[in-house]
Every structure is written in structure tokens, then in C-alpha cells.
Description:
This protein is an alpha+beta fold. The chain is built from three helices and 18 strands. It has one domain (42-257).
Amino acid sequence: MKFSTKASLVMCAMIAFTAxxxxxxxxxxxxxxxxxxxxxxxxxxxxxxxxxxxGANITLDSVWYVxxxxxxxxxxxxxxxxxxxxxxxxxxxxxxxPNSYHLIDQRNEESLSFSVKxxxxxxxxxxxxxxxxxxxxxxxxxxxxxLSKDAGMFWNTDFGFIIAKLEGxxxxxxxxxxxxxxxxxxxxxxNSVRTVTIPFQKTREIDGNVQYLxxxxxxxxxxYGEHNIRxxxxxELDEPDVLSEMLADNYKYMFRQTDY
Length: 260
């Protein structure tokens, strides 16, 4: 009997100890679960390009404009490539749009707007983009979408793409057909690809929302900036040339953000 009593006491003590351990274990708080309403989400930038000349919206074929040097001209074609878009945050991180190739064509209203999607959450203060098509994409081939040869912006595998195109009439042009600037050249001595930086007028925060960016593009900048272009002297360009680089040096300044 004494042995049984002692055994019973030991068993009771073990049960009590085990219960204490379980009770103590149950007092450890669970890890806090995230509040899903506070998790930041990706969004997008909707971009619109407003093509103009000297502050006036472009009217194709019929309206006469004046250059900085007082030459007069109309616009019948105005196209350019916006590519390799990158958005920069206050935290020094960058979002690069994948497959970033957009052709802006004044004759195609739908081309004037597009969306940069799946932008990570963050506070964005600026963007950079390229006017032109980079050499890696040019030599890759398989041209589709805005890079399709049907868009009339591809020369050949040697010259690559026409980066920007401006055509129209001008009484100062020696050619009866007017003036024609097909700017290109992406390798070797002639490289007309240019990079543009646009500082935002205010920080744009992405958190599951849409931000809107409106950019004016002034075609008059083909004629002035780093070089003074007179139509009587420079009226035709249809292959990579020194004039290509001169025009590119000028029109890289044609973009201005207009929304506040």
C-alpha cells in the first residue's frame, strides 16, 4: 500500500507538471497577421502625348507654322518612337517597363495614349525614356506591334528604324514636294538615339491606383535648340547622316509635362 500511495503521488505530480507546461505554452501569443488592407499594391501610369507646334495643337496638312528662323511649314507626318521607359522612386529604385516600344503617330489618335502597367507601389518623382529603338532590339528581328514594318518606320537591317519623322510643305524648300526629315542611325559613327529625363512636377504615388501623365511634344524643336536648321539648306533626309544627329540634338528638348 505504501508503494502504491507513493506511486500515486508521483503520477499526480507529473500530471500537474504537464498541465502547467501546456498552460504555459498556450500563453505564447500568435504572430500578428498582416492587415491586408494595408498591403500596398501595384498600379499603372496612363500616358498621353499632345503633339503641337509652338504651343498650338497640330492640324495636319492645312495650317502654316513658323520656325524660330521665320521659315514657314505645314505638317503632313509626325511620328516618333518612345521606348525603354523607366520610372524612378524617391527611394532610388527604378521600374523598367518590359517590352517598352511605343510609336506615337499624329495621324493615329489611338497611338497618342498608352498605359505603363504593373508599376510596383512607391513614390515616383521622375521618368526617363529613349527616343528611338535600341541596337539590341533592332538586330533581334521579329518586328511586331508598334515595331511592325507596316508602320512605315523601318529602313533595313543596316540602317534600322526611322526614329522620328517630320514631313510637310514649305516655300523655303528647294524641292517641290516640300521637306522630309526621316531621322535614324543607331550604330557606328551616326547614332541618333537620345535619352530624355522628365522630372515630375509633383511626386506620384502608386498604391493600387492610376496616375496620369500628359506630355506636350513640340515639333518646332526639330528646327532649333543646339542647331539652327534652315529648310532652304536642310530639306531632305532619308538615311542616317550627320543631319540626323543634329535634328536629334534639337528635338530631345521637345517634351514637357503639362499636368500639375
